[in-house]
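Q: Got a minute? One more chain.
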Amino acid sequence: MQEKTKKRTHFTPVRVLSLGFAAVIMTGALLLMLPASSANGTVTPFVDCLFVSTSATCVTGLVTVDTGTHWSYFGKTVIMFLIEIGGLGFMSFATLFALIMGRKITLKERLIMQESMNATGLQGLVNLAKYLLLFTLTVQVAAALILSTQFIPQFGIAKGIYYSVFHSVSGFCNAGIDLFGNFSSITSYSSNPVVIITLGSLIIIGGLGFFVWQELYRLFRENGFQMGFKMMPKKLSVNTKLVLIVTGILIAGGTVLMFIFEMNNPATIRGMSLGDKLLNAWFAAVTPRTAGFNSISTSEMSPAGRFLTIILMFIGGSPGSTAGGIKTTTLGLLVFAVLSVIKGREDTEIFKKRIGVDLVVKALCIVVIAMSLVLLVTMILCITEKGASLEYLIYETVSAFGTVGLTLGLTPNLSTPGKLVLAMTMYIGRLGPLTLAVALARKSRLKGIRYPEDKIIVG
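A: Always. Here it is, folded:
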């Protein structure tokens, strides 16, 4: 009986989540290998199919073959569904399917949902899944309608609608995969405010996180729009406040810095009007967190602009969202922890609330594991990708880890080992480095033991 119990408990929610994403990726890769998936009816190499499937499921956006020209509409539709499943989490779709079939959600499934959504408790998870799917559908339909005003006149009704839906899904899920061909992303729309603002807004909405939007919706519904704004400082949770403040600082600060870095760069925004300069600087600050669209050439950005992009990609979006990276709350928590130490306070305090030491340690672990992963992958790529500059390799690695999808042009020229390494990096980045570490680690058999305390000199 004990051996059976051990086998049953071996698959923890974290491990089931990890294996679930892997199963979706493998299924997607096999579908993309079908001759019907390619535009010319040939079989695409498995490594490229695996890479693209991983990129779509992990909502990254890095691609080794051109999405717009290589894949048929069947292949593009497979990629779109992988993006949707990866962005919202396969457990959300499994829950919806179970509800349609009239089946009850078990406790184990609720635990997996909790891990998938980064929820703090089990209460209300099924309703949250329903809200998540309804919210997603509403935002994506609205964005697709707006984009269709630009794409239908250009591509015709059928193709224009398909492009609108695809890019709405890709933008909201922070995937950044486009259909415009020749790895051009949306550079041809750099002077189109409708396309730029719509996709940028989708990235921000998807990157804020579903818990934040649920809390904001509840506040405005209960208190009214005008009163809701007045009550926000008092009524919102510390988590939502931190997400909104850090996100606002990163977008505003990133826009200003990107404008300063690129304003005199003739290869990016120098020749644009002031309005287009500000628009593209804003989009260049938004898209690294964490969608792979780019309205200006990333490879021709100034060194300062590329370095700023790397920083923004590493930070990423917010917990419980479609974005990757170490997350805004992790950064904010560590900043407040440092400020508390500088002020000589024992506890980390945020907005007159005390944060437990365990959360600070967890945030620190996430950053350390993330930085270690980036360094390790970059070192491996230095061996596999001979001739590529260190800047290109770091950029590619951080883009994969942060599930961003921006590239300086290295992705299509990766070697087979390089593709496999980056595919694994995207997988880890989507699950979260700490989540995967917990999934792979064995629980310690020593329980209830505390060793004597000692001191180490630091600093």
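A: Strands lie at 348-350, 353-355.
Q: Perfect, thanks.
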